[in-house]
Amino acid sequence: MIAARLCFTGLLFISAPATPAPAAIAIQTGHSPGDATFNLPPVPPPALNDAATKAVFKITGGQADSHSGALEVLHDGHIPASSDSPRENFFFAPDSAGAALLIDLGRGINLKSIATYSWHQAGRAGQQYALYAASGGKDGTQPAPDAAPDSPGSGWTLLAKVDTSAKGPGQHAVELSGSPQATLGKYRYLLFRPQANPDPSGFGQTFFSEIDVTDANAPEVQRLRTEPLLDTYQTDDGKYTFTVDSTRSPDLREWFGKKVMPAVKEWYPKITALISVPGFPPPDKMSLRLQEGEIVPGNRGIPAYAVGGNIVVSSDFMRSEANREAIGCVIHEIVHVAQTSHWGPQNHGRVPTWIVEGVADYVRWFLFEPESRGAVIHQPDDARYDASYRTTANFFDWVIRNHIKDLPRKLNATFSTGYHAGLWRDWTGKSVQELAAEWKKSLFP
Ligand SMILES: [Zn+2]
User: Fold this and answer.
1) 333 and 437: one domain?
2) CATH number at residue 22
3) Would 2 be classed as within a structural domain?
4) Are residues 439 and 381 in the same domain?
5) Ligand 1 centre and the CA of 334: distance in Å?
6) If you measure from the C-alpha of residue 359 to the centroid of ligand 1, how many angstroms do you get, rounded to a whole number?
7) Are residues 113 and 190 in the same domain?
8) For residues 359 and 371, what is the distance between their CA atoms, to the nearest angstrom?
9) Same domain, 43 and 140
């Protein structure tokens, strides 16, 4: 699905009331209900190596929500994978009166700009905060003022008050900068005082995704890529085309192209030859997208999934399993793409999941990488034919070797003809329970 994108932007200059007052501070905002990359002009995309990257972030008022990510998510250069990724954002608990976040830049820095990014599908998107700054004394060595920032002589300078809550759900970005002639001033400490968005159910605390601080005296920062990074691959006969999207994980682009795609190009035609049924050609185009963070919100640990001809792969899983499970996991998913030719809405749910997953794991563990012995069953109690994934794959392997050579194609055909347990007797003369008993006996005589 291609998300529709609309951008709303605003630009206004305010004069900060406190002293020493910067001449003028420009507040620019960007918003999009559909973008997923923080491409929200005129605010630039999040920076990767700005002055906040190594700053110390500390909560000095209120508490983090128990579902929030750690403070690190605010300055790690990574953006959330989706519009509802609590662990990839930082947000305060609902009852956080006096919520405050202190950023210690370590030394006085001549500030070019400060930018805040947030993303949520509902009431946690808008940003409402007051931002204060303190110099840390003449040489920037004093601790941050601990007085209430609005009290007279507190040592804090109010830089800006921001409110983007009226723009609604989606991605929000706010950038504060000096006038064209001047910076925001030289400061060591920043104090954010966020306020919850109006939400009667109490879920209005903003999902802050990233906070950037740029140093006017540092080299130009690197920014997150918002242009798509796409590579196209084809089988040698030109029959199948694969598009790899590494926009979010450019570090994996070369490795994926060199290590994963040759296996995909070699095995997708083999898989289609193994399972495809006349009249149901498998998709001849497939997209593979590398995604950071939780690829299914709220389900950490899902390494990949396929929907139709689109595969989404966890970049974290690819990195940590590069020399172990990564390629086999992608092979499993491309089996699902080949199965897809039958998955019209009318066929959805006609075939039990254990069969769908069992075939995918059969291809992976018994054909693609038998040497890794990933589907060996160690305990008799584990030998259940419908336990799905690699256990079912082991059962299918036994049935294929002993009874029905073209079982994968027969099973795939049931996506259109319908599956029922009686098919096993039609194919082998034995019920699935009888076959399973024989299989178990062969494993544990
Ligand atoms: Zn699967």
Assistant:
1) no
2) 2.60.120.260
3) no
4) yes
5) 9
6) 9
7) yes
8) 18
9) yes
Q: Are 208 and 91 in contact (CB under 8 A)?
A: yes
| Amino acid letter, residue 246 | S
Examine the domain organization and report whether 235 and 118 are in the same domain: no
Radius of gyration, CA atoms only, the chain: 28
Distance from C-alpha of 120 to C-alpha of 31, rounded to nearest angstrom: 11
**395 in the same domain as 300:** no
What pLDDT, on a 0 to 100 scale, did the predictor assign at position 16?
Answer: 37
CA–CA dist 235, 20 (Å, integer):
65
| Counted domains in the chain | 3
Are 326 and 357 a contacting pair, CB within 8 Å? no
Joined tokens for residue 184: 């925001």
**pLDDT, tens only, 362-411:** 999 999 999 999 999 999 999 999 999 999 999 999 999 999 999 999 99
Task: Summarize pLDDT for 257-294 with one digit per residue, the tens.
Answer: 999 999 999 999 999 999 999 988 999 999 999 998 88
Residues 26 and 135 reside in one and the same domain: yes
Give residue 2's pLDDT. 28
Compute the distance from residue 352 Cα to the ligand 1 centre, in Å.
Answer: 12
pTM of the predicted model as reported, rounded to 2 decimal places: 0.69
Q: Per-residue pLDDT tens for 291-301?
A: 988 888 677 78
CA of 312 to the centre of ligand 1 (A): 12
**Ligand 1 centroid from CA 335, angstroms:** 8
Range of the domain at 208: 8-215
Q: Using the mean position of ligand 1's atoms as its centre, give its distance from the Cα of residue 264 in Å.
A: 16
Residues with Cβ within 5 Å of ion ligand 1?
357, 360
SS3 content of the chain, % helix, strand, coil (to 5): 30, 25, 45
Q: Which secondary-structure segment (H or E) carries 201?
A: none
Contact status, residue 112 vs residue 178, Cβ threshold 8 Å? yes
